[in-house]
Amino acid sequence: MADELVHYDVAGGTATITLDSPHNRNALSAQLRGELSSALAAAAADDAVRVLVLTHTGPVFCAGMDLKEARGAGAGDQGVNEFPKILEQLWTSPKPVVARLAGPARAGGIGMVAACDIAVAVPEATFAFSEVRIGVVPAIISLTVLPRLNPRAAHELFLTGDTFDARRAVEIGLLNSATADLDAEVARYVKALAAGGPKALAETKALLSRPRPATPSDGFEEMLGLSAKFFASEEGQEGILAFAQKRKPNWIPQD
Questions:
Q1: Which of 129, 136, 82, 122 is nearest to 108 (CA)?
Q2: pLDDT tens per residue across span 128-153
Q3: Catalytic residue among 131, 171, 234, 235
Q4: What letter does residue 180 receive in the DSSP assignment?
Q5: To the nearest 10°, the Cα dihedral for 161, 167, 172, 177?
Q6: Are 117 and 173 contacting, i.e. CB atoms less than 8 angstroms apart?
Q7: Nearest residue to 110 via CA among 52, 38, 168
Q8: How far apart are CA 87 and CA 47, in angstroms?
Q9: How many CB atoms lie within 10 A of CB 2?
Q10: Cα distance between the two ends of the chain
Q11: Burial level of 210, CB count in 10 A (0-12/13-18/19+)?
Q12: Residue 10's beta-bridge partner residues?
C-alpha cells in the first residue's frame, strides 16, 4: 500500500491538513488529490473543527499538477479534471481555511492558495503562473485567483509566467502577509478566526462570495432579513449574552 501523502490531524478545534509528497514537490498527483479531497470533506463534516490549516512538508508548498501523470494522457483522462472539486471544497468550506506556505507555489498550487480565506508565507517563498511556459492555460485556477488579484498584475503575471516574490504577492492580493515568524502568524489568524461563531462564519463566507447588488438599496431588504435572523438565533443570543457578561462565548475552543 502506498504511503499516505496527505496527513489529517485535529487538535484544539483546528484541523491541520499537511501535503507530504516532497519527492515531487507536493505535486497534485492522483493519490494526493484523492487524499486531499477526503481530508477536506472530513474537516467540513466534523463539528469539532473550527478552522482548517493547509500546510506542507518539504521545501515546496505545491508545484501544481503532476506533469508525469499528465504526459500522454488525453483531454478526458487528465487529472486536472478532478481539480475543480478541491478548489470548490476550499472556497466553499463552511470553516475558514488558512494556507501556510514555508516555500514556493506554482500553477495549481497557487490556485489552492487563492481558494483559501487567509494565506501566509515566508518572505523567501516565490510564485509563478507557469502554465503558458509549457503551452497550457491557467484556466481552472483563474476562477479562484482572479477574484484576489489586482487586474493589471493578473494580466502581467498570467501572460509572462514570471516568478514573483512573497512581498509582491501581498501587494497584489494573493497573500495576507509574508513573515519569517510563520507559525506565530498562522496561530494569530487561527485564534482570531476561532473567536467567531461557527454559523456566523459559514454565512459570512457565503456572503463574501455573493454577487454584489447594483446599488446598496437593491440589497438592503435581503441583508436586513439575514442580519435579523442571526441576531435572533441561538448563536447570536449567546454572543450578545457573553458580551454583556464579559466572558467568552461557548463556541470558542478551550485552551
A1: 129
A2: 999 999 999 999 999 999 999 999 99
A3: 131
A4: S
A5: 130
A6: no
A7: 168
A8: 21
A9: 7
A10: 37
A11: exposed
A12: 15
* Grid cell in block for residue 33: 488529490
Active-site residue flag, 171:
no
Q: Which three cell numbers stand for residue 38?
A: 477526503
Q: Please give the grid coordinates belonging to residue 121.
A: 508565507
Q: Kindly state the cell numbers that stand for 242.
A: 457573553
Neighbours of 180 (CB within 10 A): 9
Helix, strand, coil percent content, the chain, rounded in steps of 5: 50, 15, 35
**Are the C-beta atoms of residues 137 and 131 closer than 8 Å to each other?**
yes
Element (H, E) at 17: strand 14-19
Residues 13 and 56: their CA atoms lie apart, in Å, by 19
Dihedral over alpha carbons 223, 193, 235, 115 (to 10 degrees)? 50
Residue with cell 481552472: 140
Convert the pLDDT of each residue in 173-210 to its tens digit: 999 999 999 999 999 999 999 999 999 999 999 999 99
Cell of 95: 470553516
Are the beta carbons of 97 and 118 closer than 8 angstroms?
yes
What is the pTM for the complete model shown?
0.94
